[in-house]
Structures are given as structure tokens and as C-alpha cells.
Amino acid sequence: MFAPSASWAALRARAEMFARVRRFFDTRGFLEVDTPALSADVVVDRHLDPLAVTVPDDPRRPAIGRQLWLQTSPEFHMKRLLAAGSGPIYQLCRVFRGGEKGRRHNPEFTMLEWYQPGASYRQGMDLLAELAGELLGGGATERISYREMFIAHAGIDPLRATLDDFVALVRQRGSAPPGSLDAEDRDGWLDWLLVELVEPKLAERGPTIVFDYPGSQAALAQTRVEADGVIVAERFELYAQGIELANGYHELLDADELARRSQAANEQRRRDGKGALPVESRLLAAMRGGLPPSVGVALGLDRALMIALGARTVQEVMPFPIDIA
Asked: CA dihedral in degrees (119, 120, 122, 124; nearest 10)?
């Protein structure tokens, strides 16, 4: 089979979406950049599995050489540009994630990522809402906090509930969590409840930005303490038709805290049966040198196009998914 999986109408719509993205950011004073797909540095995340590539020093011994990583996001390199004084920047690029294949996933996909130095948390959400209107059409993008969303759709406060409360909720709903779910893994429970109970309700809403995630899920976002003492992450996600399209952070600036979180993520990866990833990176040096306060967002363009065209799978909107690449 040599033909693309997407129709020519879908591929033309894809090209037009990319052009609209560029117009959107160019007219707002952002600089388009491009950064490496291969690097010795990589984002350390419990749920992201980068693909390793061996770059041989001697082509006669291809199995021996330097190990690099295909990037799961251009985040590290774009933040290095921010620290070097780039100003607002954006990028459309190919990224790679192992273990991601299905109706909404392909191991290689197209990501839009941008950074707004000097923007506030709320301003970051405002720009994402503007872009969602541009790409998806329809009415205004709704906003709801992670806490409000769980209370409304699952009847539980995710920031206050105990593990016993989660178990009681599951029994009440007649659900059955997977046997692989650790009984003591609070974030694992929250992720499972999100998929089982909350995301189906989000599918009934228009485009929605969910914000203020649990502090334990901050990743590379700043955190703050609420009036009732709970810690929330200044992180937000865009959903459309119950599908996650974008993930944004009020960016963490403390290099030592990033190293600590990366170590913690590696410990969780080990508990999940995965390998540890390198913690040391040039990003840490950039942060110590002075990363400006910023908001950053990553958006999956294949999924956005799938929703905009009413397609059932991302394979219908990309030319050569992994099975025919």
C-alpha cells in the first residue's frame, strides 16, 4: 500500500490549519522557531515514554554509539531559547512518544507549542481560548477548575478526598478499576476516575479549559496554596468532545525544584516497571541562568484537525500513520 490514509480533502484542510496557526501567531508578534528532534536531554514524566536512538560513532558498528532521545516535546529547547532572550515563540514540529497507538494516537505526531514570556496564568488561558475558536469554530470556550469538574461530574472533591473515598465512589458507581492500579497511588486513581467518570461528561460540553490541577500533577508548572490549604498546580488543559487537545503551564522557574520533581517522576517510573530517564539537562542551566516568567502550551494538531473535520481517527487526517509509514 503506497497511498496516504487521509483523503486529499483532509490533507488540504491540514495544510490550511497549519497556515492559520502561523497567521495567528505571526500577527501577535510571536517568532516561529525550530529545534532538534534528537537530544541527549529529555522530559522526565511518568506517562511519557521517549524513543531512544543510538547514533554510532563508527557506521561499521551501528549498535555502539551515543544514545539520544527523539523528543516528546520541544519544551526543553524552546525554554533554552527563552532564557537566551527570544521573546514570544512558537513551533510546529514532529514529536515522538512510545506506546501511543490507537484511534487518537500515533507514535509520531504534529505538535504546536508556544511560550509567552511575561504573560499571567489567566492570559495564557485567554490565548488558548482564542486559538481554540480559530481552529475549532463554535462558541466561546468554557472554563472550569479541576476541582469543580470532579465535584460536578463525579460527586467528589479530588483535592480533599481520601483513597478510601475513591474506593467507595467506585463501588457506588459499580465500576471496576484495573487490577494494575496501585491501591496507594492517589494520582493513578484520579487519572482513572477522570477517564471513567469525568471525560465522558466533558464530551457533552463545548470546548472547555480545565485549570488548577492537583499539586501532585504539576509536572513543569508552578504551584500555589489555596485558601483552604490545598496545593494546586497552575496548569490547564483544553478538551473538545471529551478529548484532551492541549496542555499548558504557568512555567516553573526553580531549577532545583525541577530536578527534585524529575527524580520523583523517575521513582514512579520504576514502580510502574519503566526505566529511569536522565535528570541532568541543559534546561537546568538555562533556568539557573534566568528563565523569564512565562506561560507555555502544547497542542496536538492532528487531534484538533480530527475534531474540526468530524473524523473518527487521527489516521484519517495524517498522510502516513505508523502502520503504513
From this structure: 30
